[in-house]
């Protein structure tokens, strides 16, 4: 396993609770849209065994052509030790990234694509949308639906949509509107549905999609193959 140590080059305050940490791109480090990585804070591998408290899975919210690795995360008032440390990190601090992989690359299969997310889950989808806007080949259109009860919506410059390029987007702040929309979108009998959020959120979305007749192989989750099957029962 290769561990890349790199530096924070910018911290963007996206909303009062959400920050994006921009990391220098280490030599030889590449990724594709939809990737997640392991973010390790200094000292995570100092002992005999790695300190899991200093490591979290994080999606990469940027594309390689943006030249920085974006990590977008919510830091609440009540926060873990990991987020405490992360919140205090300054520009120039080193962090580690390793085991980077995409379970949810953009499928170019001449289909409509619906991106369903909750809160900061939108970070996983930002690079998929940018990749599509750069090159729409073999994707009919994309629609994003994001629920965030804080109403401090994320990445609004990208997710305001570009309808003339086949990309539309909606933010909602409550479950009634959200699942009402999901039910309607599920009527598209050929489309692919990408879902990102907490496990509870995934389970609820899958239940609604399956109820409306969406087959398992049209539902994409940011899960490895073995855990994927547990969710898509
Ligand atoms: C493939 C994958 C990709 C992911 N991508 C991302 C991503 O891009 N961005 C992202 O943010 N997360 C992502 N996650 C989730 C991430 O790994 C963390 O699990 C998540 O951010 C929670 O972090 P945390 O455990 O440090 O807790 P926190 O976010 O600090 O807290 C989690 C919850 O517990 C509460 N809490 C924490 N500490 C206390 C306390 N002492 N007292 C009371 N309540 C407390 C908080 O208020 C919050 O509601 C991803 C996970 C996976 C599996």
From TrEMBL:
Keyword hit for Oxidoreductase: yes
Keywords: Dioxygenase, Oxidoreductase
TM region(s), chain numbering: none
Limits of the FAD-binding FR-type domain: 1-107
A GO molecular-function annotation: dioxygenase activity
PROSITE patterns according to UniProt: FAD_FR (PS51384)
Oxidoreductase listed as a keyword: yes
Protein's UniProt name: Bifunctional nitric oxide dioxygenase/dihydropteridine reductase 2
